[in-house]
Structure to design on (697 residues):
């Protein structure tokens, strides 16, 4: 039997019962489309997490204070201890190699008041290297200089969101924040710059923060303290991060006179670890969702099998006739198998297009990040063809095995 | 090669029948048993017969006589439980399913009582269906379909009609064209007029006689003696055995070939009452 004839016969058989073929195809289409859309959203959120983490500093290590174990068994929680000092930061900068930049910081949330509005935001006291360490760019004005830090000048750089909150959107007639004075915890600060928006969301958005000189923060906001909330360290290269992490840990352990690293009063957090932890979480969730979609594919496949079995029963006489006029088992089984595969394959194509559209629509209107990968398309094609073969095989075999005499007598 | 074997087989068989030519079909003591529950039913209980190339044979018998079983074996749709069936010098009783399919595809054309056309398909597509399995290129199919449909006597205006737009007689002529299209050695017709009124039945029988006149070998199964009388030779079956095998005394005007025992030609619509069924027959031992 010629290949062209096999396809012609199969297409005729499929089009002979359009409603049933259509409904059966729909089952697979929905399955494939959901797999494509879910994988796209999963990939998209992995990408956005990775890029948002990278945007806060690719080779970033964060040194944070550990538990405070001042007296008694009561732990005040991680990060509460006052163990990190500016001297620690200076020691890291001088003693640890392969460091590109280091930015100690003192954080706090305060009410920030401008003449035209007020907000409650994170105030970060830091030094001039902060923009390099945390990949912050300045869109207007300048960032804090070393001189301003040394003098504990009362100057402030606003995150783009805070600038809009306090002074309005410049595009819609807001005032230019540069040169304006704002009050932070009753101290007056002059705005010298605004950061460019980084588009991050969630806690610790770099856009929803303001930056003041470290010394000014220690003097006017944190209350004459020399302790730090954290130290951001940018390693020179991605490969050096582990070494830098170890070096910092060793240095601080000896400076804090702690012998056992298990009781360290600080922790060094690797941004890359965080990134991989987050994306593996996302990947797990994506796989979970795709598995649910995969179940719907199996259900769709059973639908195909059901339809093909019905077709074989319905067309028993026709199969008998074909065999009587000389069709071999193989001719009959190939025809039914091709029918099933044609159904699932066309479902696969429609499903991919539909899933892609859903992913695009979710990205456009739902605010999700989505990315359709070549992998998911290949997967969808492969799975749909496989479903056709697996669920078409049994009905095809049944058709091929029919006895022509009995098939012709079938009522 | 196959032909010479067939001729030798014919000579060896001693040419029991009166028909001349090489025996295309040779059955030796065919038995066919069906298991029904615990008991076995014998559908064929020792059938031996020869059919020569170019013969027009009717197989008759009441229901349950084994005539359908015999036709299935002759048509290579089934194999006997025991006994041998030689078709054109080939022992068909020993072939596998796929080899049987080869024989059916290349050498045998079927016409069924219930027509069995593909639903919602055109006349031409129905007629060329065997060519699809024979691997004939599409461009050759059309010309062969035209020839076969002409031979079956179907008007050209109907060729592009769908099978469900045709009358019973037209459908059966499409089925005959389909049986002819592979230029088979043997045309097997199972009650081809069974679902048709008498007048339409006559048209179909005329078509068979025309084919016979052109040299085709035809085996027709029927339970109507009126139909059987169109053939040259009638074999009667009862309880799985041949009870009579005779040359028909009367032949149709359409029959082009002279056969022994042929008498006056008759017009097709001549009254042939049930009397014919009771005509004296030459009994043969089975």
């Amino acid at each position: 039997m010629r290949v062209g004839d096999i396809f012609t016969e199969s297409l005729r058989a499929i089009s002979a019962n359009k409603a049933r073929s259509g409904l059966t195809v729909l089952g697979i289409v929905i399955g494939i489309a959901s797999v494509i859309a879910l994988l796209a959203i999963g990939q998209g959120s992995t990408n956005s997490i990775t890029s948002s983490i990278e945007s806060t500093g690719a080779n970033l290590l964060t040194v944070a204070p550990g538990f405070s174990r001042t007296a008694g068994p009561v732990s005040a929680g991680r990060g509460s201890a006052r163990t990190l000092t500016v001297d620690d930061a200076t020691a890291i900068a001088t003693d640890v190699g392969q460091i590109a930049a280091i930015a100690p910081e003192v954080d706090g949330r305060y009410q920030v008041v401008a003449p035209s509005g007020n907000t409650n935001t994170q105030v970060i006291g830091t030094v001039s290297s902060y923009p390099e360490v945390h990949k912050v760019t300045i869109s207007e004005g300048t960032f804090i200089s070393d001189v301003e830090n040394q003098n504990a000048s009362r100057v402030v750089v606003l995150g783009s969101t805070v600038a809009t909150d306090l002074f309005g959107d410049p595009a819609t007639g807001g005032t230019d924040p540069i040169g304006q004075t704002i009050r932070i915890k009753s101290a007056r600060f002059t705005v010298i710059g605004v950061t460019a928006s980084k588009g991050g969301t969630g806690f610790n958005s770099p856009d929803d923060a303001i930056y003041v000189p470290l010394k000014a923060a220690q003097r006017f906001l944190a209350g004459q303290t020399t302790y730090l909330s954290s130290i951001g360290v940018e390693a020179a290269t991605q490969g050096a991060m582990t070494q830098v992490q170890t070096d910092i840990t060793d240095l601080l352990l000896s400076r804090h006179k702690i012998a056992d690293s298990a009781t360290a009063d600080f922790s060094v957090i690797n941004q890359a670890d965080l990134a991989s932890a987050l994306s593996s979480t996302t990947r797990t969730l994506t796989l979970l969702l795709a598995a649910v979609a995969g179940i719907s594919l199996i259900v769709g496949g059973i639908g195909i099998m059901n339809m093909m079995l019905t077709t074989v029963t319905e067309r028993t006489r026709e199969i008998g006739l074909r065999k009587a006029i000389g069709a071999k088992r193989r001719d009959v089984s190939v025809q039914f198998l091709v029918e099933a595969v044609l159904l699932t394959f066309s479902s696969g194509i429609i499903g991919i297009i539909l899933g892609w559209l859903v992913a695009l629509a979710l990205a456009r209107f739902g605010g999700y990040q989505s990315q359709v990968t070549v992998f998911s398309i290949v997967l969808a094609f492969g799975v749909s063809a496989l479903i056709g073969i697996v669920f078409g095989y049994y009905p095809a075999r049944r058709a091929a095995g029919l006895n022509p005499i009995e098939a012709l007598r079938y009522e | 090669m196959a032909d010479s074997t067939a001729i030798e087989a014919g000579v060896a068989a001693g040419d029991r029948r009166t028909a001349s030519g090489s025996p295309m079909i040779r059955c030796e003591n065919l038995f066919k048993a069906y298991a029904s529950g615990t008991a076995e039913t014998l559908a064929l209980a020792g059938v031996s017969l020869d059919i020569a190339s170019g013969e027009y044979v009717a197989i008759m018998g009441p229901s349950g006589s084994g005539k359908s079983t015999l036709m299935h074996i002759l048509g290579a749709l089934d194999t006997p439980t025991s006994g041998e069936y030689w078709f054109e010098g080939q022992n068909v009783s020993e072939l596998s399913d796929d080899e049987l399919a080869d024989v059916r595809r290349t050498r045998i054309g079927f016409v069924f009582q219930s027509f069995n056309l593909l639903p919602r398909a055109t006349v031409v597509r129905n007629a060329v269906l065997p060519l699809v399995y024979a691997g004939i290129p599409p461009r050759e199919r059309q010309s062969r379909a035209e020839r076969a449909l002409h031979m079956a006597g179907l008007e050209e205006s109907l060729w592009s009609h769908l099978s469900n737009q045709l009358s019973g007689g037209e459908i059966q002529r499409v089925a005959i064209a389909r049986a002819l299209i592979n230029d088979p050695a043997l045309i097997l017709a199972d009650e081809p007029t069974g679902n048709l009124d008498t007048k339409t039945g006559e048209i179909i029988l005329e078509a068979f006689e025309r084919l016979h006149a052109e040299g085709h070998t035809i085996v027709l199964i029927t339970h109507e003696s009126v139909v059987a009388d169109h053939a040259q030779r009638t074999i009667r079956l009862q309880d799985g055995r041949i009870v009579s095998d005779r040359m028909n005394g009367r032949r149709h005007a359409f029959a082009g070939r002279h056969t022994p025992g042929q008498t006056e030609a008759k017009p097709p619509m001549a009254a042939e009452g049930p009397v014919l069924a009771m005509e004296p027959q030459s009994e043969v031992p089975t």
Chain A has a mean pLDDT of 85.
